[in-house]
Amino acid sequence: MKLYDLELSGNCYKVRLFLNLLQQPFEKVTVNVLKGEHKSPEYLSINPKGQIPTLADGECIISDSQAILVYLAEKFEAESWYPKDAQTRAEIQFWLSTAANEAGRGPADARLVKLFGAGLDYNQARQKTDALLNLLEQHLQGHDWLVGDAITIADIAVFPYVGLAGDAEISLEPYPAVRAWLNRITTQPNFIGMPGLHPAEQTV
Ligand SMILES: N[C@@H](CCC(=O)N[C@@H](CS)C(=O)NCC(=O)O)C(=O)O
């Protein structure tokens, strides 16, 4: 399997993390977004949106980090990560959509502004982040995991940009249940981190 990847991308990290948790080997192909490689004709032929990550598993090409998590869980029959019953799958989908929408337009966009100087509206991203963190805090005060009583791909999907909040100059101090959840994820066997991810320290 080849992962079209960039080390500093939280969406790519999401996939690297899950592949490591599953202990599945893969080859990284770096796509230098800063040099515009994600918009080259070669890359657009495998990902017409011109975004990273993309997973190539033989002839099977999957883009979007949430879609890749679903594919990997199914391919490797990792049922505990993506249980088959209808209600659990729907609850997981709720959080996969939250990762793509609220986490993308909240902490991910805020991080793009602070880390890479992106011309996005930081205050708007900040407001969306606060709403996401309040949603997570309320949910996690009564639960260890986002869905059910064990870690699933829902946790992996939402984790990166919340864990990278420090890069976006957003404190997780008011969110103790969120911090406890982040730390629960970091203690999973075969967990790997990425630059900027320091969930245990995000108390100030
Ligand atoms: N929903 C997509 C979002 C992917 C995404 O926004 N990737 C960023 C890097 S983290 C990217 O490729 N940005 C360049 C662009 O959109 O032009 C996913 O989860 O994979």
Short description:
The chain has seven helices and four strands; from the N terminus they run βαβαββααααα. It is α+β, with helices and mostly antiparallel strands and 204 residues long.
Task: Explain what this protein looks like in three dimensions.
- By secondary structure, this protein is of the alpha+beta class.
- It folds into two domains: 2-77, Glutaredoxin (3-Layer(aba) Sandwich), CATH 3.40.30.10; 80-193, Glutathione S-transferase Yfyf (Class Pi), Chain A, domain 2, CATH 1.20.1050.
- The chain is 50% helix and 8% strand.
- It contains seven helices and four strands, in the order E-H-E-H-E-E-H-H-H-H-H.
- The protein has helices spanning 10-21, 41-46, 65-75, 86-116, 122-140, 153-163, 176-186; strands spanning 2-5, 27-30, 54-57, 60-63.
- Strands 2-1-3-4 form a four-stranded mixed sheet, with helices on one face.
- Strand 3 (54-57) and strand 4 form a beta hairpin.
- The mean pLDDT is 96.
- It binds glutathione.
- Glutathione (GSH) binds next to helix 3.
- Residues 85-204 form the GST C-terminal domain.
- Pfam families: GST_C (PF00043), GST_N_3 (PF13417).
- Residues 1-80 form the GST N-terminal domain.
- This is Glutathione S-transferase family protein.
- InterPro entries: Glutathione-S-Trfase_C-like, Glutathione-S-Trfase_C_sf, Glutathione_S-Trfase, Glutathione_S-Trfase_N, GST_C, Thioredoxin-like_sf.
